[in-house]
Amino acid sequence: MGSFIGKRLLTVIPIFLFATLLTFLLIYLSPVDPAEAYLTAAHIQPTEELLEQKRHEFGLDQPLLVQYAQSLMKMCRLDFGTSYVSNEPVWHEIVLRLPSTLQLAFSSIALAILVSIPIGFLAAIYKNSLFDHLSRLLAYFGASIPQFWLGYLLIYFFSVKLDLFPVQGKGSIAHLVLPSITLALGLIAIYSRLLRTSVLEQLQEPYVLYARTRGIKEKIILSKHVLKIAISPMLTGLGMNLGKLLAGTIIAEEIFSWPGFGRYFIEAIFNRDIPVIQAYVLISAFLFIICNLIVDLLQMYLDPRVSWKGRTDQ
After folding, report:
1. In a domain? residue 188
2. Would you give the distance in Å from CA 175 to the centre of its chain?
3. Is residue 305 part of a domain?
4. Domain CATH number, residue 245
């Protein structure tokens, strides 16, 4: 187990370095001049003298490798520069907004897991039943409806018509309900069908027949053996979606005016706030890497064959 974790941690380093290099090159190849973008955001008329001064201040007149090395050293110290709009350190702005995104992301994931696991499991156990058909309809609806349209529908019915939940902003638990449902419905559609398929596949495995011939109760076979292994593909999808949610639930945050990381990124794009855009891309890549690492460890815990496969590959 220790060697497996060590190998996975070592793979994080080149992936993160590649992400930093790619981000740096995209900013460098962008037609937007960082010096001009800074002066424009500060409402200062750009002149050649001011542009040259800012380029020297930002280190843009140095060789490309030197710029990348300096940028990498700053990022390792969590120094992403200063926002062109607020003139505040980007990391300080992110720290203020990231907890809101974390709250929304984890509540959405928790809701998706709590709903999709029983739906997917029961749909597989009672295959072709009325419950299975209803779960299929729910999956079709959740996978097909656009997220922004679902958000506006929830606002119209539950906020405007019924006045049950607040429309926008952050505050109480009630503010969290509609954004969480907006994000969770699509995940429920994916996870429930994925789990149903996986459970049906596991029910055809020889170990299930062997357990039944030994007289083990069906409830124990389904809960302690089938579900434990069948949930593994769901965890893989969970790692990808959790990374996406942690990186910023952009659409939901914009619809419900949620003061999170994703909405901050959208504002940075409109304002051409390059340090914020660069920081967002790098932090998003880091979150994806960490989430997938955690999911790999969970899969190894639930299915020890993952660990043995890692040993045989050595």
Report:
1. yes
2. 21
3. yes
4. 1.10.3720.10
**Residue 196 domain flag:** yes
For helices 90-125 and 232-247, what crossing angle results, to 10°?
150
Distance between CA 271 and CA 24 in Å, rounded? 19
Residue with tokens 């994703």, as numbered in its chain: 262
Per-residue pLDDT of the chain (314 residues; tens, 9 = 90+): 566 667 767 777 787 788 788 878 877 777 777 788 777 777 788 788 888 888 888 777 788 888 888 888 888 888 888 888 888 888 888 888 888 888 888 898 899 989 999 999 999 999 889 999 999 998 888 888 888 888 889 998 998 888 888 888 787 888 889 999 998 998 899 889 889 998 998 888 888 888 888 888 888 888 888 888 888 777 777 777 777 776 657 788 888 888 888 888 888 888 778 888 888 888 888 887 787 777 777 777 766 655 544 444 44
User: Is residue 76 left, alpha or beta, with left meaning phi > 0 and alpha meaning psi from -120 to 50?
Assistant: alpha
Query: Tokens at residue 175, please?
Result: 């503010």
Other CB atoms within a 10 A radius of the CB of residue 78 amount to: 14
Is 53 contained in some domain? no
DSSP for 237-295 reads: HHHHHHHHHHH--HHHHHHTT--SHHHHHHHHHHHT-HHHHHHHHHHHHHHHHHHHHHH
* Predicted model pTM: 0.77
> Any bridge partners for residue 89, and if so which?
82
* Structural domain count of the chain: 1
Q: Print the domain residue range for 154.
A: 97-272+290-312
Q: Which two tokens stand for residue 306?
A: 């993952």
The answer to whether the beta carbons of residues 104 and 253 sit under 8 Å apart is yes
